[in-house]
Amino acid sequence: MTREIHVGAAQLGPIARDESRSQVVDRLIALLREGAERGCRLVVFPELALTTFFPRWWTEDPTGHDHYYEREMPSAATQPLFDEARRLGVGFCLGYAELTPDGHRYNTYVLVDVDGSIVGRYRKVHIPGHDEHEPWRPFQHLERRYFEESPDGFGVHDAFGGVVGMALCNDRRWPETYRVLGLLGVELVLIGYNTPLHYAPDPDQNPLQSFHNNLVMASGAYQNGTWVVGVAKGGVEEGVESLSHSQIIAPSGQVVTQATVSGDLIVSAVCDLDLCRHYKDTLFDFARYRRPEHYGLISSTRGVVDRAEPR
Ligand code: CDT
Q: What is the pTM of this model?
């Protein structure tokens, strides 16, 4: 049986501050239909795909943005997306701000099967930015104020004929993300992102955003023998320009398709999951070549160790 899956990276253009959930869901449904017409079985939407990127604004009260969060999934507003997915027989992955019944706020991805049922959820592990107002910045990046770090960590799901993992935006810059998923046998990593082109702490990095985006995802793909689907919400949103350049990367690390413009669009590729074996069984045969006895620091230490201290 073939293990090819046609995957669509459903890039979004800006979502305005006052755009309603149902307006956004209509845009997502249009992309889902376009994916179905192309023959996609899975359509991947970006991080925080239902709202504007609200962590760019400070509110004194950390609950001040609660209207941007989903209290249930599906909800009345998002149910039409689930219904259309089931009707079309196309699964999807959707990023949104989650507010749990017991008051926790997460930056969340949900994976939905072709029958509209939820396969699994992922809550962002690496939360970037800051948690207090920093007026010197031209805009804020207050994810650390509005989202908690995932208590669950990374996981994989047997879905779409393969082993699927999820990650969100800043997670993609960390090799640990891919390696933990790789150790779980991942074959398809889905990553949504909102990456402002301006990086206030070091603007020298601004012109390198696209290079770094590709660098980290291609490395993660190659070093773990997995497909990677990177999906942007890009363009100028409420005055802040973010990276587009959604792309699908093969286990070789090669980009097989990439968006060349901003805006709502789909780029898609037929991903042969058996290609993963070429890398997982050779150069990156983990069981044969890894030396975990020498990697202890990776899980025992958060920051750089003080080498003056006895270990
Ligand atoms: N959404 C997200 O995680 N964005 C970050 C911006 C980092 S700069 C504060 C990213 O890694 O692209």
A: 0.98
